[in-house]
Amino acid sequence: QPVSRGTLAAIDGLYRELGGQVLGIIPHDLTQDVGGELVEGLMNIVLGIRQQYREVKDWEQADALRRQLTELGVVVEDQPEGATWRVERGGG
């Protein structure tokens, strides 16, 4: 069962507030501070889930994941060898 966008936003807000503003343990730019390994791993998981939706032709869920990533500034491009992604800063 997919998690709603509102639930994800609430979790993200709480995570950022507690970890970043209160405790000061969350870096502002994860790709710089973690060397991209965490982000890369998370994106591999998300794209793997999206691929599973595509394999069973659940286009609605696959497209919903893509839209949510786009809203975060992550561009997903489907290639014959698999999906690739990149972050677009400042224009989404």
Structural class assignment:
alpha+beta
Calculate the terminal CA-CA distance, rounded to whole Å: 27 Å
The sequence of SSEs as H and E is HHHHEE
Q: How are the strands of the biggest sheet laid out side by side?
A: 1-2
**How many distinct folded domains?**
1
- What helical percentage do the residues reach? 55-70%
**Cα-atom radius of gyration:** 15 Å
Q: How would you state the average pLDDT, rounded? A: 79
- Assign an overall shape: globular
Regions with little confidence, pLDDT below 50 for 5+ residues: none
Major β-sheet profile: 2 strands, antiparallel
Counting H and I runs of at least 4 residues, what is the number of helices? Answer: 4
> How many beta-strand elements?
2
Strand content: 5-15%
Protein name: Cysteinyl-tRNA ligase anticodon binding domain-containing protein
GO molecular function, one term: ATP binding
InterPro entries: CysS_C, tRNAsynth_Ia_anticodon-bd
Domain Cysteinyl-tRNA ligase anticodon binding: 46-86
